[in-house]
Amino acid sequence: MAKAKFILKEPNTKIDTLIYLVYNYQYKRFKYSTGERINPKFWNKSSQRVKASKQFPEYPEFNSRLDKIENGINNAFRKLLNDGIQPNNKLLKEELENELSDNLVKAKKTTFFEFIEDYIEESKLNKTNGTIKVYNTTFKYLKEYKNRYKPIDFETISLEFYNHYLGFLKLEHNLSNNTVGKHIKTIKSFLNEATERGLNNNLEFRNKKFKTLREEADTVYLSIEELNKIEKIDLKASPRLEKVRDLFLVGCYTGLRFSDFTQIQPENIVSNNTVIKVRTKKTGQRVSIPLHKTVRTILKKYKNRLPKAYSNQTMNAYLKEVISLAGIKELVETTITKGGKIEKSVLPKYKLVSTHTARRSFATNLYLAEVPSISIMKITGHKTERSFLQYIRVSQKENADKLLTHPFFN
């Protein structure tokens, strides 16, 4: 039996969220954005309607609109059956919109740029500052492209636009392949969200040729031996460097991002000071991490209350000083594709270290120590082993040394 219900996109949010119609029929599921938004505190999950509330006086009209949508989908389904047509999601959507066109006033069309602007504002309430910065930078490039070349809207996002826009980012802004890929990924996330909300019908951005560029970066990790060198430096004469070193080591032995390992509080230290338990800022995941002896020593030093961190940029600058003092200066050749050209450079290793090296070092060192990938991924948050293996940094020699212990080679 076909049945309609209404659900909230984000039922636990504190701000307005979209209401979806979900229609289950003939072992299939049709999901449709109503275009309506409501704060979850006004929503009655049982009745799937807005609560009668003085704080939301327009609830009768709001519920009447939902009633019309429910009647519309039921009528659309029956009409298809009566006409001898087997229902599917595409036909249901067309028939539903035909049903609603006479009853409901269509909202003013939201442009791609209006949507991005609104979405960035919404995201400030539930996304990290780093993510908002990425959104704003991508939006800045899109506006520049629009002003210099041609208008951009949902219907103009095509493979032709994609190819031209790649050239704009690569050649005119001299961006690396990975940076270009990050902006394409962000544009696709904007389009996915707009499509979910029923604002976009153009799905050309999901074409396999509309791909996110990715180039394996020449990032480094620090081995256990190198981390021991860093731990042993006497930095008492430089409190700023000592603080940076200690925070960085916490990151190296917990696998947490900068935004997380710099926010550890006494209440995050549980199970008799043997486990750190935090909800990560970027993904909202809860992770539990056994305390390494180095982390226990550092926490004891600060009485479980780590010092306030500098900004990520300042920390990265001071960190290079720390790594240099530890004598980690071996030369590393790096290559990067910028402006469509491959650029090579040779730098001492300490210049390539940043706060994110801590997380990469954690994953790589655990992998080399034969800790199962699935256990490491529980902490790093990688969804697939493939993405995890791209993240770790293991040289050919290290990989060969690791394989020597495998039964196949013995």
Structure description:
- The chain has 15 helices and ten strands.
- The chain folds into three domains: 99 residues, no CATH class; 95 residues, Orthogonal Bundle (DNA polymerase, domain 1), CATH 1.10.150; 186 residues, hpI Integrase, Chain A (Orthogonal Bundle), CATH 1.10.443.10.
- Helices cover 47% and strands 14% of the residues.
- The longest helix is centred in the first third of the chain and has 24 residues.
- The chain starts with a strand and ends in a 6-residue tail after the last helix.
- A three-stranded antiparallel beta sheet has the order 1-2-3. Strands 6-7-8 form a three-stranded antiparallel beta sheet, with no helix packed on it. It has a two-stranded antiparallel ribbon with strand order 4-5.
- By secondary structure, the chain is α+β, with helices and mostly antiparallel strands.
- Belongs to the 'phage' integrase family.
- Keywords: DNA integration, DNA recombination, DNA-binding.
- It comes from Algibacter aquimarinus.
- This is Site-specific integrase.
